[in-house]
Amino acid sequence: MLPATAPGDNRDMSTSPHRNDDTVIRHLLTTPATWAVVGLSANTQRTAYGVSQFLRSTLGHRIIPVHPRAEEALGETGYAALADIPDGTAVEVVDLFVNSSLVGTIVDEAIAQKDRLGIQALWLQLGVVDEAAAARAAEAGLDVVMNTCPKIEYPRFRV
User: Fold this and answer.
1) Where is the CoA-binding domain (predicted)?
2) Could you tell me the sign of the dihedral formed by the alpha carbons of 143, 147, 149, 152, in that order?
């Protein structure tokens, strides 16, 4: 049972904190898939670019950049939003490199595009946390990994 909140504590205690599932992490790291990376631009200095290179070159994933500027990155056409990715494109994982304040909207879009794109999981990068959005995604049948990075998890699983 969740502890009662203290006076003045405004946290939402209606849901327990999300816990990452090692089985899900291992599956996402070892199963070749297409990852839509929200926040990936052509800026090679950004963490999203380096991690996306790792996902592609080390793990063998196809990367689809999703960024408001719809820039090409890593040789792939970019899209401004998940809804702009063409029909017939399978996207198994949506990887979020965005400010936590933007997560809820993107998770709702992923849920709305789930059936059309075949989305199965969301990966919220290190420092990207939204418990309510994670709960909505899980309720919609999506696997959720939150507040970690594939490059951190990869050696842990000795994949």
Assistant:
1) 29-128
2) negative
Q: Residue 11 burial by CB count (10 A; 0-12/13-18/19+): exposed, middle or buried?
A: exposed
- Report d(CA 106, CA 111) in Å as an integer: 9
Query: Domains in the chain, please, with CATH?
Result: 22-156 (3.40.50.720)
- Residue 159 predicted with pLDDT over 80: no
Read off the amino acid at residue 29: L
SS3 (DSSP) at 60: coil
For residue range 4-33, list pLDDT tens digits in order.
333 333 334 445 689 999 999 999 999 999
pTM across the whole model: 0.88
Nearest Cα neighbor of 111 from 94, 87, 128 is 94
Give the position of tokens 């926040």: 39
C-alpha to C-alpha distance for 130 and 110, rounded to whole angstroms: 14
Q: Which of 79, 73, 75 is nearest to 43 (CA)?
A: 73
